[in-house]
Amino acid sequence: MVELDGHRLSLSHLDRVLFPGSGHTKAEILRYYAEIAPAMVPHVDGRAASFVRAPEGTASESWIAKTPPNGSPGWVPVVPVPHREGVTEQIMIDSAAALIAMVNLGAYEVHVPQWRAAAGPERHDRLVVDLDPGPGLDLVACCRVAQRLRQLLAEDGLTPYPVVSGAKGLHLYAPVHPASGRATAGYAKAMGARLRDEHPGLIVVAMAKAERAGKVFIDWSQNASAKTTAAPYTVRLLADRPGVAAPVTWEEVEACTDPADLAFGPEEVLARFAADGDLLADLTGDAVRAALP
């Protein structure tokens, strides 16, 4: 039993190995989330969370869960999310206690949209661009593309913040004045098309996977109101050892010459947070928001 934010939680299966390649146990992943919560919670609070669940670890079954996991404590908040078929309820992680409660239920990977539940899905307050390397390329190519994309966004008055995805690519976030999903997705797509026209042999914007070999895919579609992105600081369940969606500096992006330069596990991310604080803290500040052109 542990107590967090005035709530008592019974943590279970603490010695279960979740990542066979590294030996990380459930206890270690819970400890990571408890210690990173001060940085992570502000980036997910107010947003409808969905999860990748893998209660037995990465060697067993995993699935995407949007509705609250069975066994969710009654004090964990839920928010209504409109869909074409109606309205459903999803978890909102508003505290370290809520985060640990979900992780304890095997919801190890957290995804959120770029809009807040209170404002609604047509008032996005963040733009996100996902740079994904196709076969034959890696994170280094994404870093080079990100540098040019930073210049273009800055010309439009936007301030982008880089976050390695914890998988192969790189996410760029920019705080914006509220805009519709159609507007943010359209802007991101147009920006991607501009880069493609500059570097047609390097950039692809089309969704067809067959076109991505040897190119960096600029995924603009994650700005759609129905889409979500792996949340900053979430653990990823894509390999037999845990990667983390970790904020990085533009100096690190520029200096990257090997994907290993920007590959971080939970322990490295906690050390970075202890040394530098939340590199993404300004993303939540209203003072840096800009209107889409």
TrEMBL record:
Source domain of life: Bacteria
Cited InterPro entries: LigD_pol_dom, NHEJ_LigD
Pfam families for the chain: LigD_Prim-Pol
Domain DNA ligase D polymerase: 25-279
Name of this protein: DNA ligase D polymerase domain-containing protein
Origin species: Streptomyces mashuensis
